[in-house]
Structure formats: C-alpha cells, structure tokens
Specification:
alpha/beta; D-Maltodextrin-Binding Protein, domain 2; 2 domains; two-stranded parallel ribbon; 13 helices; 10 strands; SBP; signal; thiamine pyrophosphate binding; periplasm; ABC transporter substrate-binding protein
C-alpha cells in the first residue's frame, strides 16, 4: 500500500507540475515556415508541449518581419519567445524589447559554446543553431575538394561558379568572406567587388535564391557556390552529388537565436523553451533534419551529419560573425555598389 500510495503521489505531483503551466496559458513564438518549421516542431515545439501541457501558438514570420511585429507590439507584446537569424536580437536587446537571461536559469547553458551565449545578461538570447557559410561543390566534378575562399578565383572554376546576390542574407555573408579573403573588411568592400567583377568577366553567374542554385547544379553544370551548409544537404537529397567545405580563412555564420520577450507573464515557460532549444537532443535533431551546426558541446552527430556542418571545438573555432549592426547600417550603400559592379 505504501508503494502504491507513493507512486500515486508522484504521478499526481507530475500531473500538477504539468497542468500548472497549462492552465489559461497562451504561449506564442515565431518560426520560419517550410522545412525549418517542420523540424522546429519535431525537435522542440512538440516535446515542449508534451512536457508542459501548454499549446504553442506558432506565427510563421522570418526575422525581419518578426522584429517589425515585436517593435509594433512594444507596449503589449504578443510573442513569448522570438527567433532571429539576422542579428535582430542585438537591436532588440538594446531597445529593451528582450528580457535579460540569467545563465543559471538554463540547465543546458554550461554546455553551450561561449560565443553562442556571450550576451545573455544583455537580453541577447543564445544561438541554438548555426548556418555555416562555406563552399558547396559538385563532388563528381571538383577533386580535390576546395579548401579556402581564395579557391573561388581558381580559373578552372570560372565558368562553373555560382554567386548569390547580396540581397540574399547568405549571399551577403559569402560576399563579405570573399572580400575579407582579398584583404577587405567591413570598412572597405572594394576588394570583394573587384574580385566579383573578375569572376563575372571569367564566366561566373549570379543568382538571387537558393532554388536557382539547385537549378544551376542540376541543369547548367555548376561546380561550386559559396552558400550555407544546409543547402549542400538539400542538393544531395535532390540526388545531386554535393559536398560542403569550410574555407581555411574562416567560416561566416548566421546565428539562429532564441530570445525571451520582455513584458510577458510567461517568463518561466519562456526560459524552459529556450533551455530545451539549447539542449543536445534538440540540436542533434536539427542537425539531422536540416544540417545546422549545434552550439551545445555535448551534441553528438554521426560522421555523415558531422561532415556537412561546423562541428565540435575545432569546427566552430573557425566561425566568424560579421557584425549584424554594421551590415544593416551599410546594406543600402553596399547593395548599390554591388549592383553597379554586376551591371558592368
């Protein structure tokens, strides 16, 4: 009888701890739609709902739109947790739209790489996935594999190179890395523009979207393209021989962050959601599904998955984050110069 009573008490306790979260709670987040949102649900949202009993309202909104909504709702925020991939958390935290996070409130924070949790106390949520930008290449046509960004200037690739317009976020990061490999920096993008002009003269092609990259690899004998690690996996799933290489000069990265919105009543729930997002299990799931790089040092990936991402201490050591605030401040001027260059 004692054992049965003990079990009953434990079961009741677990039930109460779950329903305590669930009662009269509206919990709202954003996600990015498509395959990403499918993975988001499988890796984090559904496990969170099952553990807490809370139903998550998912608003499909990319980073810029989500941030615009967050600003517009400043006096009455609707999101409990908000996700960004373009660095909007830096501005949001500075404007007081995001709540500071005490690392001690996250059970998984100790295992997250330092760069991914550097400004929790300022309100910048942790990066729970990384889209690493490197060199996607045709494994049948390119041997040996490319090893550096300067390889993009290899004459053998001239008529088989696909660049992405810098109106595309990944295209911007790839261009900035090419610029850096040629001696430029965020104060001087001319070396990169000069390199692009040479590549175009030699036969390179510029596209605007990821589906166009797939089309070029599938139909027009493309061999190499600077783009995100997850897209090499997309090409391979489409039956195309593709690999991903990190350039020796460094790997630009798009940080995908999970942030607690200030002024909402569900702070404990929000912290739990963030904590689950940075768990090794969630990050292994994302890497398996979409080939995003984990930021939790305890995430364990198969050799097949690890080959497609920046993984482990050594893999993430080469990650570079170009300052999102500087990019945003210069975006219009840079796009204007880019358009002049590619129109020649």
């Amino acid at each position: 009888m004692k054992a049965i009573l003990g079990t009953t008490v434990l079961s009741l306790s677990a039930l109460l701890s779950t329903t305590a979260f669930a009662q009269d709670t509206t919990f709202t987040i954003n996600s990015f739609g498509g395959a990403y949102e499918t993975a988001h649900r499988a890796c984090i949202i559904t496990p969170f709902e099952e553990e807490t009993g809370v139903s998550v309202n998912v608003v499909t909104a990319y980073s810029a739109d989500a941030f615009a909504q967050l600003r517009a709702q400043k006096d009455a925020p609707q999101f409990d947790v908000i996700h960004f991939s373009g660095g909007q958390e830096i501005v949001g935290a500075a404007e007081g739209l995001l709540a500071p996070i005490d690392a001690a409130s996250l059970t998984n924070a100790a295992d997250v790489y330092d760069f991914a949790k550097a400004n929790l106390a300022k309100g910048e949520g942790p990066a729970y996935s990384i889209a690493a930008i490197g060199l996607i290449y045709n494994t049948d046509a390119v041997s040996p594999a490319p090893t550096q960004w300067a390889d993009l200037l290899n004459p053998e690739y001239s008529e088989h190179l696909v660049l992405t317009d810098i109106s595309n976020g990944y295209g911007m990061l790839g261009f900035l890395m090419l610029n850096q490999s040629q001696g430029g920096d965020l104060n001087n993008i001319q070396p990169g523009l000069d390199a692009v002009a040479k590549l175009l003269e030699a036969g390179a092609l510029i596209v605007s979207t990821s589906p166009e990259i797939q089309q070029e690899f599938a139909q027009n004998d493309a061999w190499i393209a600077p783009y995100a690690s997850d897209y090499a996996f997309t090409l391979r799933k489409a039956g195309l021989p593709s690999g991903f290489a990190q350039g020796a000069e460094g790997t630009p990265a798009s940080y995908i962050t999970t942030n607690v919105v200030a002024g909402r009543p569900n702070t404990d729930l929000a912290l739990k959601f963030v904590d689950m997002s940075i768990s090794p299990e969630a990050q292994e799931c994302f890497a398996e599904a979409l080939r995003y790089s984990p930021t939790n040092s305890k995430a364990e990936l198969s050799a097949e998955v690890a080959a497609d991402v920046a993984y482990g201490e050594e893999g993430v050591a080469g990650l570079i984050r170009f300052d999102p605030a500087v990019i945003e401040a210069n975006r219009t001027a840079w796009v204007e110069e880019w358009n002049k260059t590619i129109a020649r």
